[in-house]
Amino acid sequence: MELRRKRAYDTAESADGFRVLVDRLWPRGVSKERAEIDLWAKDTAPSPELRKQWHAASDDDWGAYADRYRAELAGESASALDELAAEARKHGVVTLVYAAHDEEHNHAVVLEEALRELL
C-alpha cells in the first residue's frame, strides 16, 4: 500500500487512488465534484483548539505543534486513526488530501507518519 499527500486545490487524478480528506473543515472554494473525495476522515484532523493555536503560531513552533497533534492521535483521535488505517489497508494507493498551503508543515505530514506506523 502506498500513502501520498496532496493539496485539495490540486487536480484529482486517477493515480491518487483512494482520496481521503483529512481536514476538519471542507476546503474553501472546492466543490465536492472537483475534490473527488472517497472518504472524509475529519475525526483524524487536529482538534479545533489545536488548529487555531497552529494558525496563530510561527513556523518555529512546528515541532511543538506536531508533538501536540501526535498526542491527540494517540489519545482522543486513536479510534479514528485506527479506522482510517483499516480502510487504507483495502486500497493500493491512498492519498491524504488537505487544504494547507505549506506542503511540509501541516497536519497531513504528521498523520501520514502515524498511519505508516500502523500499516
Question: Could you explain the architecture of this structure?
Answer:
Pfam families: DUF488-N3i. This is MarR family transcriptional regulator. The chain is of the alpha/beta class. The chain has one domain (2-118). Helix content is 41%, strand content 15%. It has five helices and four strands; from the N terminus they run E-E-H-E-H-H-H-E-H. A four-stranded parallel sheet has the order 1-4-2-3, covered by helices on one side. Helix 3 (62-74) crosses helix 5 (107-118). The longest helix is centred in the middle third of the chain and has 13 residues, at 62-74. It is globular. The model has no long low-confidence stretch (mean pLDDT 94).
Note the main attributes of this structure.
119 residues, alpha/beta, 5 helices, 41% helix, 15% strand
Helix and strand arrangement:
Elements: E1 2-7, E2 18-21, H1 32-35, E3 39-40, H2 48-56, H3 62-74, H4 78-88, E4 93-98, H5 107-118
Parallel strand pairs: 1-4, 2-3, 2-4
- Overall number of domains: 1
Mean pLDDT: 94
The helix/strand series, from N terminus to C terminus, equals EEHEHHHEH
Helix/strand class: alpha/beta
Tally of DSSP helical segments = 5
Q: What is the total tally of β strands? A: 4
Pfam families: DUF488-N3i (PF22752)
Protein name: MarR family transcriptional regulator
Organism: Microbacterium aerolatum
